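Record minuted for completeness.

…
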Amino acid sequence: MKISFKNDYSEGAHPAILEALLQTNRQQQPGYGLDDYSEQAKALIRERIGNPQAEIFFVSGGTQANLLVLGHILRPHESIIACQSAHIADHETGAIEAVGHKIHLAPSDNGKLSPEQIRDYASRYTNVPHQVQPRLVYITQTTEIGTLYSLAELKAIWQCCQELGLLLYMDGARLAQALSAEGNDIGWEDLARYTDIFYIGATKCGALLGEAIVFNQAALADYFSFYIKQKGALLAKGRLLGLQFLTLFQNNLYEELGRVANTQMKRINEAFVAKGIGFLSDTCTNQLFPILTQRQIAQLSADFDFYLWQKVDAEHTAIRLITSWATEDSQVEALLRVIEGLTP
């Protein structure tokens, strides 16, 4: 069986989560997210981000989180500004468009938006009422190609959104890896200060499933619980989500699992650098996009699973490799041996 570096949710869940689920299995709790575990987890998150007024909701997955937030927050004539590699653009089967919202896609080589691009798109749609009106800016941390926004970049986007009357929403599917990355200067409290809404991804950080949607402005969350229920996303056994987040936010486990994934990928990154192989993007997180020849791809694919990400030219393609909280040293070492023996 091949070793998979295809995604960071191939494994089940961190043992601490499985143990917590087992130990509490027979304890009776209210349903629909009103359980003690969910309330305790929300309290820990509010404390971590320094925002006691934040409204927090647990849902099962990232696409669901994006669809719920954007469907709830936008009126029918309002649209979204995002970069062309945004997850909502190419990896969610048109979920956002399906509920009636246009996505304005800005070109980007590094997976990030700039204030200049936001101003450009926000200024294009002035033929009221004949054109949609941009209302929300969507960014991801880490980005779809593993890059990071700096605190200065986040502040600049936030200020731009404030000036233009736009909401700022951050997709945090791999937020653990971002917060734990070398060179990252964005902290939990910055997320509360410089976004209107963000979500904390756990599916890709040791949980069986689950994302925590955080509304930094409580008023934006008015009636959101009704919307969750209406869209079929309110779990009767909401305790399963709450308990997992409670476990992840005790003893800094969430950040530690992100750090493990990043550390394993750093070893792989260094091996490709030693072979003189270049990358599609400059990343210090758990995603890597080496640009390989077709022969090199064939050599790797004999023993490993990964995504073919982007064709670069007739002879080269960028692949995507991902490590997780559970990636073992032996798996990395097996890959390193093959990388060392790659031929052009």
Q: What stands out?
A: The chain has a mean pLDDT of 97. The first strand starts at residue 3 and ends at 4. The chain has two domains: 3-9+254-341, 15-251.
